[in-house]
Amino acid sequence: MQKFTTFSAVAAPLRRSNVDTDQIIPAVYLKRITKTGFEDALFASWRNDPEFVLNQPAYKKAEVLIAGPDFGTGSSREHAVWALRDYGFKAVLSAKFADIFRGNAGKQGLVAGQITEEATEALWAAIEANPGVQITIDLEAKTASIGGLVVPFEIDEYTRWRLIEGLDDIGLTLRDEQSITDFEAKRESWRPKTLPARP
Amino acid sequence: MPTYLTAQLNLTFSLKTKVAKLTKPLTLAEKVWNDHLVVKGEDGAPDLLYIDLHLVHEVTSPQAFDGLRLAGRKVRRPDLTIATEDHNTPTLDIDKPIADVTSRTQIEALRKNAQEFGIRIHSLGDIEQGIVHVVGPQLGLTMPGITVVCGDSHTSTHGAFGALAMGIGTSEVEHVLATQTLPLTPFKTMAINVDGKLRPGVSAKDIILAVIAKIGTGGGQGYVLEYRGSAIEDLSIEARMTICNMSIEAGARAGMVAPDEKTFEYLKGRPHAPEGADWLAAVEYWRTLPTDVGAKFDAEVFLDANTLDPFVTWGTNPGQGVSLNERVPDPETIGDPNERAAAERALEYMDLRAGTKMKDIKVDTVFLGSCTNSRIEDLRAAAEIIRGQTKADGLRMLVVPGSARVRLQAEAEGLDQVFKDFGAEWRFAGCSMCLGMNPDQLAPGERAASTSNRNFEGRQGKGARTHLVSPLVAAATAIRGTLSAVADLIAEHEAN
Ligand code: SF4
Exposed end of chain A (fewer CB within 10 Å): N or C? Predict the structure, then answer.
């Protein structure tokens, strides 16, 4: 996982609330066997609509999504985060996230920052006044800014620390790699081994 | 024995007891947990546990391998990992390509991943292929005192050996592949005490169905169950697997039975069982595993084996079961409003009326198989009942051995012929109709007596109706066409 401190990118306004995981990625895409390549599945049922925000040229390269409240509700599918990530999103800001979605996001290195509803409106207005404008997400300062407009966002400290350090669950465990190696050195020889296959 | 030796033995003995007295008495599960601690979690953080054996199948692993690829990681211990194909494999024409695209893709992905990451795999057609929970024990890989995980909830099966065996999700599969460890939060312990002697025609499956009916499908949540008592000690290792297998249906994290002489006997000489000095060291350690006298369980449940009848489910979760001598329960008599509503829904789905005698329920299909009841003893028990009998008119019976080896063993004993003579279909190994990911499914509205572990809506096919039963009940039902106990066959025989 990449370390994350601060970055600037195009922001897209998603003027909808209650975007559930079925809307983020419909169930038909869950049959795949990969953990990547879900970019085509993101918001699949809206992508045919030329009016849909991501179909507008100014937002084609968006990496930050500003969504209405209650983002990521519904089923617990991790694929919702994969689809956002694969499309290129690095951060989503919303006034309220579903818990499981927020947990999954943290694990995959996607920033899910909570902002107020007023801040949401202010960011939407700033973006729409200037489509394609860049937003700066600063994880150290926990702020999102467009020009002079600076709004604070919240993210739990543990997740923020992991994102800044660039640690996923596995990376976190591997900080204890020496303990694992020490444990393995003491592991009794009678314990199971699958290789080589004995007849 | 010379006196000085006896004295020395006594001394060591008293030293040992002293040490034991100084330390807190522990349960089996706690001992296994403690012996696998890599890092003790502080301030409420989970403990990091070492994993001795990681079993892999095609359904829950592709994204885990893909995650490794994405992060440029390797499998830390391919030598503690083993894969088999089971959920999607056909049980007929296994030499032909798999028709269903999703099934074929998952299996091909597993083969490719196993090759890329250096993992031993037993593919369709291989002599060690079979249901992952049948294959591990049969190879002697499942042992007392080890930790076993698999991306499959019925991993609890392996607890029958005194192993701590847990089902995990796909991200955890990836975690174990990469680190051979898993962060886990401590559990509570529950003793399931089953004392007494089972009557003829009653078996391990009936014990576990009765336990789940008693504590409910959520009753074991947060617990590791330890099955103990004289009735459990009397069971064979395979029967103990049947019990541990369904721990998850009570919501438990795992289920275990303390290892004993039978466990050692079962393991000795298996392909991966320890040998020579390793065997002696292992057995010495295994003998220290049973729960200490005075150890405290967080909860206890009691069941009398003497009075237990064959058990069968009437509803759509494994907790909705009754004795085969009873009737379909009346939801009106259920106090808890949620459970009452669930019962009403279940009866509607199952197309059953309250008050109907369980034994009057007619079934279309009998399925003998799944990781609960597809081992050689299960096949022997069922074959014994149907030998020389005729199948009920219009009824279909499917016999699916748990592994290719079980199939060969059964054929060597002539059991396949018994099943075929009876009119049952003798199939190749796999999960099959347990979940119908392959073509073995029930038609909508069809009713089955099934030796598997889940009677959820649609589990065995869209609109299919499942009654969970033991292999003995399955066999008796196949003869009579209605849900039946072995005792009913004898009664009938005597009446004639
Ligand atoms: S037999 Fe059924 S319960 Fe067992 S592993 Fe296969 S699908 Fe799961």
Answer: C
